[in-house]
Amino acid sequence: MRTGSGQADDPPAATQKAEPATGPPLATTRLVTWHGDLVAWVDQLGWLRSLNDWLTAVLGPVRERHQDNLALELLHGGRWAGHPLHPALSDLPIGLWTGAMLLDTADRGPAPRRGIDAAGLLSAAGILAAGATALTGLSDWTVSNDQDRRVGLFHGLLNTVALGLQCASLGTRMTGHRSTARALGAASLTVTAAAGYLGGHLVFTKGVMVNRVAWAIGPRRWTRALPEADVPDDSPIAVEAEGRQVMLYRHRGSLYAIDNICSHAGGLLSRGTVADLTVTCPLHGSRFALADGCVGRGPASQPQPVLPTRIRNGWIEVRGSQPAPRRPANGRTQP
Questions:
Q1: φ and ψ at 77, to 5 degrees?
Q2: 10 Å Cβ neighbour count for 269?
Q3: pLDDT tens-digit profile of 215-245?
Q4: What's the pLDDT score for residue 33?
Q5: Which of 188, 193, 75 minimizes the C-alpha distance to 124?
Q6: For residues 146 and 202, is the Cβ–Cβ distance under 8 A?
């Protein structure tokens, strides 16, 4: 390759001196890393870890005892709603309390007055919505793990503080102390915004309560997974086919292949139990039918991808849901 052609693998020219690499200024680095530092700081709070361990020890057995309860599953949203309810419900108190603050800003009333006004009505509606949001959030919290659980707990504590401030704002508003009510409402919305930021971190950075197999489509062609003789009857087997983790299960001569990564929180289904051709995730108890991946019990909200299988020359082969396009005689790829 010619010297100076601009390609990344060009050697430096003999007449040029390499300039020393300079890193970004410290201030610039902090501007783009502060959110990671904030989450790390929250995760290291000793009192938060102690509270998290205590609540886990109390609520964990309760959830496991009642995980077949329909009401508990509905709190997640799960298969009934198609996605978790908590993120959608959280928009209600934020919007209602923001509306209350805007009405307070526009209010030019001359004298304080007792009772509830339009802003107070929005504040009260937001308090009711926050209660439902808290219940669904607590339900989702019980099926999270490790750092996500601790950050989620801090998120919930901030929302609890915001709810308390909003209740105090409504109380002072009804007694006629409108200036105090407005200050408390603004403080509540500020704390809510901080809690919402941590909630966004959990969803968009850590992928909590999102479909973990939404982009699983491969392998594009029939791929050998395991010799047929190595798959016993009625025992889940984990294999890998072109980077995709697959669980194989054979029952009475029928072979089933399902994505091994649980769509809810990434648990390995091959480590769970199988009964009546339904596999139970070992992490949080979600159940999936082996035949079509349908959700039999939450907290999972999305079905599990199943893969076509076949046996060729003593090998079990699997293929993803989207096969590779065929190439006709003219060599052009067709969809």
A1: 95, -65
A2: 29
A3: 888 898 999 999 999 999 999 999 999 889 9
A4: 84
A5: 188
A6: no
